Model the fold of this input.
Amino acid sequence: ASDVYKRQIMVNIKKSVLSSVLKKFLMAITGFVLASFLLIHMLGNLQTFEGGPHAINAYAHTLQTLPWEILWGFRLTLLACFVIHFLTAYMLVVENNKSRPQQYAVKKSLSSSLAARTMIYSGTVVIAFAVLHILHFTVLNLDPDFKILEWVATGGIYEGKTLHDVYAMLIMGFSNPWVALGYIFAMIVIAFHLSHGVSSMFQSVGLRNEAWRYRLNAVAAAYCVVIAAGFSLNPLAVLVSKYTDCEILPVKCVLKQIEAQKAAGAGKIFVDYGFLSGKAAKCAAAVAEKTEAKK
Done:
């Protein structure tokens, strides 16, 4: 009898720990961390519009050179939230499919939004994009040329130091229309995913009731629009600057310098940004010099 009682206690504890309420709470907390990171990451990316490579290159270098305890603590926390969030989501989907009565399928579809009904699919796209994005722009495995882009700081706390040229890397990466359009598509899917996730987050932690439902839904929708638009600005600016006469970013000049130095067999590529200070002739001279070196 004692063993049966102990087993029953363990079963009850297991059911409690794995309850849907707890899972939804975990999803809400981890979702909040991930959604907050998206906003911070977006604001960091927008530093490309501050007049040149200085802001975003210094910002990226500062992040990369944080004390390892802080840097890896932050990365591991994000990874843990990411894994917990999506594993919990898949577990909830499996449970819902097992417990959902077949006769209520139509009723459920009519009473839930498209974003809610497709969370598992949009979430899968988010996972795939996150992996590709890290490999492309963080680990730098998908385009080897990214690794040889260097920049000598001309001001600020890194004066005279050689840093990785994130500014040129973004221009080079998004100059590929497939990369840029794929990135924008992923941002739209992420926003679609967040449109239900952010709203549900308030409910899961007990902050949403009928009186606040529409207000919080509006906040969630506005947040998703800001995230999608903010992340899409860089690829859109690069495409517009490359294929039109509207030069939002110095795409054509930067790409010319990169191509000229690659053709000359340069082991490291240093883009001369002197033209951004009103020295347009310097850009043309730099390109001509690299072309002559090739010959």
Notes: Residues 68-99 form the longest helix (32 residues).
